[in-house]
Amino acid sequence: MNEVNHSMVYEFVFLGISSSWDIQLFLLVFSFMFYVAIVLGNFLIMFTVIFDPHLHSPMYLLLCNLSFIDLCFSSVSVPKMIYDLFFEHKTISFLGCLMQIFFIHKFGGTEMILLISMAFDRYVAICKPLHYLTIMNPRMCIFLIMGSWFIGLIHAVAQLAFVVNLPFCGPNEIDSFYCDLPRLIRLACADTYKLQFMVTANSGFISIGTLFLLIISYIYILVTVQKHSSNGLSKALSTLSAHITVVALFFGPCMFVYIWPFPTMPVDKFLFILNFVVTPVLNPSIYTFRNKEMQVAMKRLIIQLRNSRKNL
Fold first, then answer.
1. Helices H / strands E in the chain, number of each
2. Which of 126, 171, 194, 300 has the fewest CB atoms in 10 Å of its CB?
């Protein structure tokens, strides 16, 4: 009973978001349109950063990684959710559920640490502009990116370790549209009160800790800029506003789910739709529409593609 292979439950049934067909139809159209926008928007940013040599700087390399993570994070659950909206009986295999949990926490944890790396990049650019290229050298940039992926992996493995050997022998219905770790643990045929607390504490710690570091870094940047130049404060706010917006959109649902004392409330389903569907499409929009250099690079890339087609 302690081994996954001996578990009596071989699949889980999702109860979905709503039993209303009207709401499901709306979510189907909404999710499909947004997922297409997620794929196209984030691929456009990655393609532009990779193939435009003017954007081969730490800030845009970090942004390229953020787009890739957003695309992967959304792809873990949204295609499955869209597929399930076509059917009344929504199931996922035991192994598929564990893989979904692993990759959700893997990409979610990686994005949290990457946002800290991006905040550090903005701190150096705003507070130490003369030393920017020295501090944010290629080695540092690679270290920040690889560190984000490594910490995300450690977080995901730690979360998966909590459930991989739990016995599941009874109810197999998950009141969600994806494998939500706290809900899955409650289905185990064992006393999981302490385990639920540890899982919530683990995710809550990395979420609160990351958000705290980000808030402190933004405050420090603004205070430093104000001391040197009152005119530079508005420019710093303009530069940081995109980062602050992304942080608020990403951490809002996470903080609600892991701190709110009633995690089974239906509202958390819609909050995670925001996290999986809306936030990944807003990130490229925020960074693209508010960044003139990115806009110029995209126009330059489109012109190059048109010219190459004419020459063929």
1. 11, 3
2. 194
- Nearest 10 degrees: CA dihedral of 157, 199, 31, 93? 60
Q: Specify the 3-state DSSP secondary structure of 173.
A: strand
| Distance between CA atoms of residues 137 and 56, nearest Å | 12
CA–CA distance from 192 to each of 199, 201, 205 (Å)? 10, 14, 19
Taking the CA atoms of residue 294, residue 296, residue 302 and residue 305 in that order, the dihedral angle to the nearest 10 degrees is: -100
Q: Which two tokens stand for residue 75?
A: 């792809």
**Strand-pair partners of 90:** 14
Mean per-residue pLDDT, 68-81: 92
CA-to-CA distance for 256 and 275, rounded, in angstroms? 12
CA Rg value for the chain: 21
Closest-CA residue to 37 (of 293, 309, 278, 307): 278
- Is 115 within 8 Å of 214 (Cβ atoms)? yes
Mean pLDDT of 49-74: 90
**Phi, psi (5° rounding) for residue 246?**
-60, -45
Cα–Cα dist 247/24, whole Å? 29
Distance, in Å, from the CA atom of 283 to the CA atom of 194, rounded to the nearest integer, reads 36
Nearest CA-CA partner of 168 in 104, 106, 105, 92? 92
Give the sheet arrangement for strand 90-93, strand by strand.
90-93, 11-14, 173-174
Rounded Cα distance between 13 and 8, Å, is 14
pTM of the model: 0.86
